[in-house]
Amino acid sequence: MLAMVASSDAPLLLLDGDLTIIAASHSFGRAFAVDVTTASGSPVFDLGAGEWRSPKLRSLLTATASGQAAIDAYEMDLARPDHGTRRLVIKAQKLHYADAAAPRILMTVSDVTDARIAERLKNDLLRDKAVLLQEVQHRVANSLQIIASVLMQSARGVLSEETRTHLTDAHNRVMSIATVQKQLAQAGQGDVALRPYFTQLCQSLGASMIRDHDKQSIEVSGDESRVGADVSISLGLIVTELVINALKHAFPGDRAGKIIVDYTSRGADWTLSVGDDGVGMPEAGGEATPGLGTTIVEALARQLKARVAVTGSKPGTSVSIAHVQSAAAGGNGVKPPEHAV
User: Fold this and answer.
1) Using an 8 Å Cβ cutoff, are 24 and 13 in contact?
2) For residues 155 and 167, what is the distance between their CA atoms, to the nearest angstrom?
3) What residues form DSSP beta bridges with 21?
4) Is 326 in a helix, a strand, or coil?
């Protein structure tokens, strides 16, 4: 036993019931500048210049020697002259021998000073990163607002109806992205609750695009699903494109109607749908012009490994994006109608 203690790579002390040192490892001597050959026979509290004389440590070792306790991870500061203060983690347990009258305690000492400093530095860096991220998000939000304002002013000043339409579309997309960014910034690093997220997003879209809220409205329904921030970004952009599309095409001539955004999930399977009770899809053979939104929705659906399906609701149109865990990897199902996004 004494040879094992002496040769241990970990700083060890073998104590008797009176807390006197029976043996000390050479690693202990190197770590704490102790001559292990003269340390034997001395009380542990007389080591060095008395820096080990801790009432708390004495109480814990005494309780361990009596069998009333064991020291799992007691932390203490050891202040040695010319060595500064080191943070130690001490473990101690009573060894079981046939001679109960001669108790033995094995005490292990770990210097965690450098680890604690590294941990504090890491935490400081994480806090600095969080502050910097908040500042970046604030500046991004301000920049998006400025861009949206410039686009709207430009749209009001041009004579071409086609150019005005493109600028207005760009304004609406920038505003929706600003809403997505704001919501995710508030959510922080954790998962995002989708129903309130979609609700705020749709409120922003409705405020900028619906002229008469007595005639047209956007409703959000669904369960209590939560997803990671990266997935929520893709879902939010899909909702943005489909809601913008419905507001532009489903209710011509200030027609009254409602758009319903719904999200439900079961395990890894989920379905996002955006439906309206408007004029519906054009008749077969009608003109269809591919739009930027179509490409965006298809790309985001592929990214989420989901399928896109479009159906006539009679009245209206419903677009669903569904992810089924057991579905084949190839293909994304039916594409949205070319005019519709």
Assistant:
1) yes
2) 5
3) 15
4) coil
**296 domain residue, yes or no:** yes
Return the SS3 of 218: strand
Q: How far apart are CA 199 and CA 192, in angstroms?
A: 13
Domain final residue, candidates 93, 111, 129 = 111
Whether 196 is covered by a domain: the verdict is no
Domain count, the chain: 3
- Which helix or strand (DSSP H or E) is residue 322 part of? strand 317-323
**Is 101 in the same domain as 75?**
yes
pLDDT for 332 beyond 50 = no
Q: Which of 54, 76, 111 is at the close of a domain?
A: 111
Provide the residue range defining the domain that includes 60. 2-111
Answer whether 293's CB lies under 8 Å from 244's CB.
yes
**In this structure, what token pair is assigned to residue 99?**
């001679």
Which whole-number Å values give the CA distances from 123 to 54, 112, 118, 129, in the listed order? 30, 16, 9, 10
- The CA-to-CA distance between both ends of the chain, in Å, stands at 79
Residue with tokens 């419905």: 246
Instruction: For the chain, give the mean pLDDT.
Output: 83
Distances (CA, A) of 327 to 155, 308, 333: 44, 13, 11
What is the rounded CA–CA span in Å between residue 256 and residue 236?
25
pTM over 0.70: no
Peptide bond into 81 cis (omega under 30): no
Residue 203 falls inside a structural domain = no
Give the pLDDT confidence score for residue 106 in this predicted structure: 92
Q: Where are the alpha helices (DSSP H) in the chain?
A: 2-7, 26-32, 36-39, 55-65, 113-157, 161-187, 194-209, 229-249, 292-303
